[in-house]
Amino acid sequence: MTSPTVDTQQQVDQFRAQFSRVRDELGRMIVGQGEIIESTLVAFFAAGHVLLEGVPGLGKTMLVRTLADAVNLKFSRVQFTPDLMPSDIIGTNIINEDEHGKKSFQFQPGPVFANILLADEINRATPKTQSALLEAMQEKHVTVAGTTHRVEEPFMVLATQNPLEMEGTYPLPEAQLDRFLFKLKVTYPTADDLHTILDRTTQTGSPQINKVIGGDEVRAMRATVRDVPMTREVQAHAIGLVLGTHPENAEASPLARRFVRYGASPRGVQALILAAKIYALVDGRYHVSRADINRAALPALRHRLILNFEGEAEGMTSEAVLEEILKVL
Questions:
Q1: 35 vs 312: CA distance, rounded Å
Q2: Which domain holds residue 47?
Protein backbone atom coordinates (compact mmCIF):
# COMPACT_ATOMS: atom_id res chain seq x y z
CA MET A 1 0.00 0.00 0.00
CA THR A 2 1.34 3.44 -0.93
CA SER A 3 2.25 5.85 1.83
CA PRO A 4 0.04 8.93 2.32
CA THR A 5 1.31 12.25 0.99
CA VAL A 6 2.35 15.08 3.30
CA ASP A 7 -1.01 16.85 2.83
CA THR A 8 -2.88 13.63 3.46
CA GLN A 9 -0.91 12.94 6.64
CA GLN A 10 -1.72 16.45 7.81
CA GLN A 11 -5.41 15.69 7.29
CA VAL A 12 -5.10 12.49 9.29
CA ASP A 13 -3.28 14.26 12.11
CA GLN A 14 -5.80 17.09 12.15
CA PHE A 15 -8.73 14.68 12.22
CA ARG A 16 -7.14 12.69 15.03
CA ALA A 17 -6.42 15.81 17.07
CA GLN A 18 -9.92 17.26 16.67
CA PHE A 19 -11.57 13.91 17.42
CA SER A 20 -9.47 13.59 20.58
CA ARG A 21 -10.37 17.12 21.71
CA VAL A 22 -14.08 16.41 21.43
CA ARG A 23 -13.74 12.99 23.07
CA ASP A 24 -11.74 14.43 25.97
CA GLU A 25 -14.22 17.25 26.43
CA LEU A 26 -17.12 14.79 26.67
CA GLY A 27 -15.08 12.68 29.09
CA ARG A 28 -14.85 15.65 31.46
CA MET A 29 -18.64 15.57 31.86
CA ILE A 30 -19.58 11.91 31.24
CA VAL A 31 -18.03 9.46 33.72
CA GLY A 32 -17.16 5.82 33.01
CA GLN A 33 -18.62 5.61 29.50
CA GLY A 34 -15.49 5.94 27.40
CA GLU A 35 -16.52 3.33 24.84
CA ILE A 36 -20.00 4.84 24.48
CA ILE A 37 -18.50 8.31 24.01
CA GLU A 38 -16.09 7.13 21.32
CA SER A 39 -18.75 5.10 19.48
CA THR A 40 -21.15 8.04 19.53
CA LEU A 41 -18.48 10.28 18.03
CA VAL A 42 -17.68 7.67 15.38
CA ALA A 43 -21.34 7.65 14.31
CA PHE A 44 -21.48 11.45 14.44
CA PHE A 45 -18.47 11.96 12.15
CA ALA A 46 -19.75 9.21 9.85
CA ALA A 47 -22.95 11.27 9.44
CA GLY A 48 -24.99 8.48 11.02
CA HIS A 49 -27.58 8.14 13.77
CA VAL A 50 -27.35 6.32 17.10
CA LEU A 51 -29.80 4.27 19.15
CA LEU A 52 -28.83 4.33 22.84
CA GLU A 53 -30.29 1.54 24.96
CA GLY A 54 -30.06 1.57 28.73
CA VAL A 55 -32.01 1.97 31.95
CA PRO A 56 -32.85 5.51 33.12
CA GLY A 57 -30.27 7.60 34.93
CA LEU A 58 -27.12 6.47 33.10
CA GLY A 59 -26.39 9.83 31.48
CA LYS A 60 -27.74 9.23 27.97
CA THR A 61 -29.42 12.65 27.78
CA MET A 62 -26.38 14.34 29.28
CA LEU A 63 -24.16 12.71 26.65
CA VAL A 64 -26.21 14.08 23.77
CA ARG A 65 -26.50 17.58 25.22
CA THR A 66 -22.77 17.67 26.00
CA LEU A 67 -21.91 16.62 22.45
CA ALA A 68 -23.98 19.47 21.04
CA ASP A 69 -22.24 21.95 23.34
CA ALA A 70 -18.75 20.66 22.52
CA VAL A 71 -19.22 20.97 18.75
CA ASN A 72 -21.17 24.26 19.03
CA LEU A 73 -24.30 22.99 17.24
CA LYS A 74 -28.01 23.48 17.80
CA PHE A 75 -29.54 20.93 20.16
CA SER A 76 -33.17 19.88 20.40
CA ARG A 77 -34.95 17.31 22.54
CA VAL A 78 -38.28 15.52 22.09
CA GLN A 79 -39.83 13.41 24.85
CA PHE A 80 -41.71 10.68 23.00
CA THR A 81 -45.10 9.83 24.49
CA PRO A 82 -48.12 7.88 23.18
CA ASP A 83 -50.03 11.10 22.42
CA LEU A 84 -47.19 12.72 20.44
CA MET A 85 -48.17 13.57 16.87
CA PRO A 86 -45.92 13.76 13.77
CA SER A 87 -46.48 17.51 13.54
CA ASP A 88 -45.01 17.84 17.05
CA ILE A 89 -41.71 16.65 15.57
CA ILE A 90 -41.48 17.94 12.02
CA GLY A 91 -43.61 21.10 12.36
CA THR A 92 -46.81 22.34 10.77
CA ASN A 93 -48.30 25.17 8.72
CA ILE A 94 -50.01 27.92 10.69
CA ILE A 95 -52.23 30.76 9.45
CA ASN A 96 -50.44 34.09 9.55
CA GLU A 97 -52.24 37.43 9.13
CA ASP A 98 -50.34 40.59 8.16
CA GLU A 99 -51.16 44.20 9.00
CA HIS A 100 -53.45 44.44 5.97
CA GLY A 101 -55.55 41.50 7.04
CA LYS A 102 -54.19 39.20 4.38
CA LYS A 103 -53.92 35.62 5.54
CA SER A 104 -51.33 33.09 4.43
CA PHE A 105 -49.85 29.83 5.57
CA GLN A 106 -46.48 29.98 7.29
CA PHE A 107 -44.38 26.93 8.16
CA GLN A 108 -43.61 26.58 11.85
CA PRO A 109 -40.54 24.32 12.13
CA GLY A 110 -40.58 21.51 14.67
CA PRO A 111 -37.72 20.33 16.89
CA VAL A 112 -36.34 18.14 14.07
CA PHE A 113 -34.84 21.33 12.62
CA ALA A 114 -31.75 21.14 14.79
CA ASN A 115 -28.26 19.79 14.23
CA ILE A 116 -28.45 17.21 17.01
CA LEU A 117 -31.87 15.83 17.94
CA LEU A 118 -32.43 13.74 21.06
CA ALA A 119 -35.45 11.44 20.63
CA ASP A 120 -35.95 10.41 24.23
CA GLU A 121 -37.70 7.06 24.81
CA ILE A 122 -38.53 6.73 21.13
CA ASN A 123 -40.33 3.43 21.65
CA ARG A 124 -43.06 5.14 23.71
CA ALA A 125 -44.54 6.90 20.68
CA THR A 126 -46.91 5.30 18.19
CA PRO A 127 -45.54 3.92 14.89
CA LYS A 128 -47.14 6.85 13.04
CA THR A 129 -45.07 9.32 15.04
CA GLN A 130 -41.94 7.19 14.94
CA SER A 131 -42.13 7.11 11.16
CA ALA A 132 -42.13 10.91 11.06
CA LEU A 133 -38.41 10.69 11.78
CA LEU A 134 -37.70 8.30 8.90
CA GLU A 135 -37.67 10.89 6.15
CA ALA A 136 -35.51 13.30 8.13
CA MET A 137 -33.04 10.59 9.14
CA GLN A 138 -32.59 9.16 5.67
CA GLU A 139 -33.32 12.00 3.26
CA LYS A 140 -32.30 14.94 5.48
CA HIS A 141 -35.58 16.74 4.78
CA VAL A 142 -39.27 16.64 5.75
CA THR A 143 -42.37 17.21 3.66
CA VAL A 144 -45.33 19.18 5.01
CA ALA A 145 -48.40 19.86 2.87
CA GLY A 146 -46.49 18.91 -0.26
CA THR A 147 -43.59 21.28 0.44
CA THR A 148 -40.11 19.95 1.19
CA HIS A 149 -38.06 21.55 3.96
CA ARG A 150 -34.42 20.58 4.37
CA VAL A 151 -32.85 20.12 7.78
CA GLU A 152 -29.59 21.89 8.46
CA GLU A 153 -26.38 19.91 8.09
CA PRO A 154 -24.70 18.46 10.05
CA PHE A 155 -27.73 16.53 11.30
CA MET A 156 -27.85 13.60 13.72
CA VAL A 157 -30.59 11.77 15.61
CA LEU A 158 -29.73 10.10 18.90
CA ALA A 159 -32.64 8.04 20.18
CA THR A 160 -32.92 6.40 23.58
CA GLN A 161 -34.99 3.48 24.74
CA ASN A 162 -35.42 1.64 28.03
CA PRO A 163 -34.86 -2.14 27.63
CA LEU A 164 -36.68 -3.06 30.84
CA GLU A 165 -40.03 -1.27 31.01
CA MET A 166 -41.69 -2.45 27.80
CA GLU A 167 -45.36 -2.18 28.83
CA GLY A 168 -47.19 0.35 26.68
CA THR A 169 -44.31 0.71 24.23
CA TYR A 170 -44.10 0.32 20.47
CA PRO A 171 -40.93 -1.55 19.45
CA LEU A 172 -39.15 0.09 16.54
CA PRO A 173 -39.85 -1.64 13.20
CA GLU A 174 -36.93 -3.10 11.27
CA ALA A 175 -37.05 -0.31 8.67
CA GLN A 176 -36.43 2.31 11.32
CA LEU A 177 -33.83 0.30 13.23
CA ASP A 178 -31.90 -0.09 9.99
CA ARG A 179 -31.52 3.67 9.72
CA PHE A 180 -29.40 3.84 12.85
CA LEU A 181 -25.71 3.49 12.08
CA PHE A 182 -24.99 2.20 15.60
CA LYS A 183 -26.93 0.66 18.43
CA LEU A 184 -25.08 1.19 21.71
CA LYS A 185 -25.86 -0.45 25.04
CA VAL A 186 -25.16 1.86 27.98
CA THR A 187 -24.00 -0.14 30.99
CA TYR A 188 -24.19 0.64 34.70
CA PRO A 189 -21.20 2.54 36.17
CA THR A 190 -18.68 0.90 38.47
CA ALA A 191 -18.27 1.79 42.15
CA ASP A 192 -15.33 4.09 41.37
CA ASP A 193 -17.33 5.80 38.64
CA LEU A 194 -20.23 6.31 41.05
CA HIS A 195 -17.87 8.01 43.52
CA THR A 196 -16.79 10.43 40.78
CA ILE A 197 -20.38 11.06 39.70
CA LEU A 198 -21.42 11.84 43.28
CA ASP A 199 -18.44 14.15 43.78
CA ARG A 200 -19.46 16.10 40.69
CA THR A 201 -23.21 16.21 41.24
CA THR A 202 -23.69 16.55 45.00
CA GLN A 203 -21.08 19.20 45.74
CA THR A 204 -20.55 22.81 44.75
CA GLY A 205 -19.39 23.38 41.18
CA SER A 206 -19.47 21.21 38.08
CA PRO A 207 -17.38 20.94 34.90
CA GLN A 208 -18.12 23.50 32.19
CA ILE A 209 -18.13 22.32 28.60
CA ASN A 210 -15.94 24.22 26.15
CA LYS A 211 -16.81 24.56 22.46
CA VAL A 212 -13.82 22.84 20.90
CA ILE A 213 -14.91 22.73 17.22
CA GLY A 214 -17.76 24.10 15.11
CA GLY A 215 -20.00 23.14 12.23
CA ASP A 216 -17.41 23.90 9.54
CA GLU A 217 -14.87 21.62 11.20
CA VAL A 218 -17.49 18.87 11.53
CA ARG A 219 -18.31 19.05 7.82
CA ALA A 220 -14.61 18.98 6.92
CA MET A 221 -14.00 15.96 9.15
CA ARG A 222 -16.93 14.11 7.58
CA ALA A 223 -15.46 14.79 4.15
CA THR A 224 -12.08 13.46 5.29
CA VAL A 225 -13.71 10.18 6.36
CA ARG A 226 -15.08 9.62 2.85
CA ASP A 227 -11.63 10.11 1.33
CA VAL A 228 -9.96 7.29 3.27
CA PRO A 229 -9.11 4.47 0.80
CA MET A 230 -9.89 0.81 1.34
CA THR A 231 -8.43 -2.25 -0.33
CA ARG A 232 -10.63 -4.77 -2.08
CA GLU A 233 -9.55 -7.42 0.42
CA VAL A 234 -10.72 -5.42 3.45
CA GLN A 235 -13.97 -4.52 1.71
CA ALA A 236 -14.52 -8.20 0.94
CA HIS A 237 -13.99 -8.95 4.62
CA ALA A 238 -16.78 -6.53 5.53
CA ILE A 239 -19.07 -8.08 2.93
CA GLY A 240 -18.27 -11.57 4.17
CA LEU A 241 -19.10 -10.54 7.73
CA VAL A 242 -22.54 -9.30 6.70
CA LEU A 243 -23.26 -12.25 4.41
CA GLY A 244 -22.35 -14.54 7.29
CA THR A 245 -25.45 -13.28 9.12
CA HIS A 246 -27.78 -14.54 6.37
CA PRO A 247 -28.99 -18.07 7.20
CA GLU A 248 -29.51 -18.99 3.54
CA ASN A 249 -25.96 -18.00 2.56
CA ALA A 250 -23.35 -20.70 2.04
CA GLU A 251 -20.91 -18.82 4.32
CA ALA A 252 -23.41 -18.45 7.18
CA SER A 253 -22.26 -19.50 10.63
CA PRO A 254 -23.97 -22.41 12.43
CA LEU A 255 -25.68 -20.06 14.87
CA ALA A 256 -26.93 -17.87 12.02
CA ARG A 257 -28.38 -20.87 10.19
CA ARG A 258 -30.17 -22.06 13.30
CA PHE A 259 -31.33 -18.89 15.04
CA VAL A 260 -31.42 -16.01 12.52
CA ARG A 261 -34.49 -15.25 10.42
CA TYR A 262 -33.10 -12.31 8.43
CA GLY A 263 -29.52 -11.08 8.26
CA ALA A 264 -28.07 -7.59 8.10
CA SER A 265 -29.00 -5.28 5.23
CA PRO A 266 -26.63 -3.50 2.81
CA ARG A 267 -26.78 -0.51 5.17
CA GLY A 268 -24.90 -2.76 7.59
CA VAL A 269 -21.94 -2.97 5.21
CA GLN A 270 -21.99 0.79 4.72
CA ALA A 271 -21.98 1.30 8.49
CA LEU A 272 -19.06 -1.10 8.90
CA ILE A 273 -16.94 0.64 6.31
CA LEU A 274 -17.63 4.22 7.43
CA ALA A 275 -16.98 3.37 11.07
CA ALA A 276 -13.82 1.44 10.18
CA LYS A 277 -12.47 4.45 8.27
CA ILE A 278 -12.88 6.60 11.38
CA TYR A 279 -11.21 4.02 13.61
CA ALA A 280 -8.27 4.05 11.20
CA LEU A 281 -8.04 7.85 11.27
CA VAL A 282 -8.23 7.98 15.05
CA ASP A 283 -5.38 5.46 15.10
CA GLY A 284 -3.35 7.74 12.84
CA ARG A 285 -3.64 5.59 9.70
CA TYR A 286 -4.84 6.47 6.21
CA HIS A 287 -5.90 2.93 5.39
CA VAL A 288 -8.48 0.53 6.82
CA SER A 289 -7.58 -2.85 8.29
CA ARG A 290 -9.64 -5.96 8.98
CA ALA A 291 -9.34 -5.17 12.69
CA ASP A 292 -11.12 -1.85 12.10
CA ILE A 293 -14.00 -3.70 10.44
CA ASN A 294 -14.19 -6.19 13.31
CA ARG A 295 -14.20 -3.40 15.87
CA ALA A 296 -17.30 -1.89 14.28
CA ALA A 297 -19.17 -5.20 13.95
CA LEU A 298 -21.19 -5.28 17.18
CA PRO A 299 -22.47 -1.68 17.28
CA ALA A 300 -23.11 -1.61 13.52
CA LEU A 301 -24.86 -4.97 13.14
CA ARG A 302 -26.43 -6.02 16.46
CA HIS A 303 -29.74 -4.29 15.66
CA ARG A 304 -29.89 -5.48 12.05
CA LEU A 305 -30.23 -9.19 12.80
CA ILE A 306 -33.75 -10.59 13.25
CA LEU A 307 -33.86 -13.78 15.26
CA ASN A 308 -36.37 -16.51 14.50
CA PHE A 309 -38.77 -18.04 17.00
CA GLU A 310 -36.26 -20.68 18.11
CA GLY A 311 -33.62 -18.03 18.70
CA GLU A 312 -35.93 -15.96 20.88
CA ALA A 313 -37.12 -19.04 22.78
CA GLU A 314 -33.53 -20.16 23.42
CA GLY A 315 -32.49 -16.70 24.62
CA MET A 316 -30.00 -16.29 21.78
CA THR A 317 -28.60 -12.81 21.13
CA SER A 318 -27.42 -11.15 17.95
CA GLU A 319 -24.11 -10.41 19.69
CA ALA A 320 -23.46 -14.14 20.16
CA VAL A 321 -24.11 -14.76 16.45
CA LEU A 322 -21.77 -11.96 15.42
CA GLU A 323 -19.01 -13.08 17.78
CA GLU A 324 -19.13 -16.56 16.26
CA ILE A 325 -18.84 -15.11 12.74
CA LEU A 326 -15.88 -12.97 13.77
CA LYS A 327 -14.06 -16.04 15.10
CA VAL A 328 -14.26 -17.95 11.83
CA LEU A 329 -13.55 -15.06 9.42
A1: 28
A2: 1-84+110-193+212-217
